[in-house]
Amino acid sequence: MDFFKRLEKIDGAVNRGYARWGKWLGAGLLLFILAWGGWLIWASIWGPPTGPVTLIIHSEIDRPIRGFSVNGVAGANSSAHDKENPYASGSGKSTCCGSVSGKTAEVVWTVDYTLAQYQAGIRTEIHKVRIPLPERKWEENYLHVYFLPGDKVRLWWGTGFISPTAKDVPNTNETDTIKE
Q1: Which pLDDT value is given to residue 172?
Q2: Which residue in 129, 107, 116 sits closest to 64, CA to CA?
Q3: How does DSSP assign 73-99, residue by residue?
Q4: Which of 56, 64, 80, 87 is surrounded by the fewest CB atoms within 10 Å?
């Protein structure tokens, strides 16, 4: 019986507290919901672009790329570029979805070898570079990563799967490669 008397005391205290502070609790909850809704509307109309990114690889190097990553988001692989085949430099493979943000991008890629290159003594190499990340605009959900000879990497945002040539790619950076 002692348990039920204590339970009634607690119930009475909660009811008195709610009678005294109930309108303030409701106002605080309403204020929180309105602030969250206001932020949501601001972010969707005037806020910076955010959300998932599709990584697309383009390569003009004569060795296959086994894989790459941009700020830890993994990308696809690519075959070796064949200069004699005009269709070899088309739009690369893509991977979805990850979040790439910030002012800089750390690009890590693994360069593999063809059979002829292996027989010539060329082995797998891992390259890493930190370069400026271009500014992302609304509806630009595709981050294109362009690998060029000389361990150069260029990044740009796009609105779709495009197949540029090296001269069409914005030269946003010159890179120094750190081999590991």
Answers
A1: 52
A2: 116
A3: EE---BPPP-TT-TTTTS---EEEEE-
A4: 87
